[in-house]
Amino acid sequence: MSCLKYAAHAYAWTSSWNSDSLDIIDHAKQIGFDLIEIPLMEIEYIDPKAIRERANGIGLGVCASTACSEKNDPTGEDEDTRKRGVEYLKKCVEATSEMGATLFTGVTYSAIGRKIDSIPDERYWNRAADCMREIARFAQNFGITIGIEPINRYETFLINTCRQALKLKAMIDEPNVAIHLDAYHMNIEETDFYHPTLEAADDLCHFHLSESHRGTPGTGTVDWDGIYRALAEIGYNGIVGLESFCAPSDAMRAATCIWRKLAPSSDQLLTEGLKYLKSLEKKYYAKTK
């Protein structure tokens, strides 16, 4: 029996989540996943109650994620932009709860893709912390954990490493804020995979098991043994997800920069990736029992 809970990101199959996407929930269950990760970037198309009913009906878990944009940037230069960021993230929290999920994570602290002209000073850190503190306190009313996902330097100027995410978490200082790692981004920003995973330890709420090229896990340069050895050593038994893409989604095209097919099909990518990752779990978690 698996110790980890494996999630499939919905963008593996669709370029834009809406009410026509509900069959993806059944499909994720059919090919062996424990959860479906619902993207909230286009929240106006989300029907949380329909998602909850469909997922509950087949016994599939749900989690949610987003990436803030420059129109709702928590670190935006003007107060109106930051207020829109708070309003948007509160909507995401409410939708997460209505879906029956308890985890909302991703690039929750700043706009994805935003560039600035210098090393970010404390203004940006404080803006992110102030916004996320308000969101975390709001989310406590719903029993929701808020995740901070470090992403690479080409996609954010603020949180690139696990250590930076831990710094922001400490500044927010709320009990329902946690760390969400992603192997794709770690491959660019971290010096290895094992030690940052250990460093996250009790603060870890999610781990995107994404290959270095975002294709099938096990076919790139990510040190999967290092990740699973660390996960087993810290006794992690939470959510891990395959945020892998056969082709680009319209909503995330600018961020993923995928311009070629990475596998013959999404089903093949996810099925083979899931099998490979579960074999690593069996190998390393058996040593800790």
Verbal overview:
By secondary structure, the protein is of the alpha/beta class. It has a single domain, classed as Divalent-metal-dependent TIM barrel enzymes (TIM Barrel, Alpha-Beta Barrel), CATH 3.20.20.150. Helices cover 40% and strands 16% of the residues. It has ten helices and eight strands. It has an eight-stranded parallel β-barrel, surrounded by seven helices. Helix 5 links the parallel strand 5 and strand 6. The two termini are 13 Å apart. 48% of the residues are buried.
Task: Please outline the helices and strands.
Layout: E1 5-9, H1 23-30, E2 35-39, H2 48-58, E3 61-68, H3 79-98, E4 103-111, H4 122-140, E5 145-148, H5 162-172, E6 177-182, H6 183-189, H7 194-200, E7 204-208, H8 224-233, E8 239-242, H9 253-256, H10 266-285
Helix pairs in contact: 3-4, 4-5, 7-8, 8-10
Condensed summary:
With 289 residues, the protein is an alpha/beta fold.
Keywords:
289 residues, alpha/beta, TIM Barrel, eight-stranded parallel barrel, 10 helices, 40% helix
Annotation field: number of helices = 10
* CATH architecture level-2 label: Alpha-Beta Barrel
Task: Output the CATH topology.
Answer: TIM Barrel
Could you tell me the strand content as a percent range? 15-25%
Structural class from helices and strands? Answer: alpha/beta
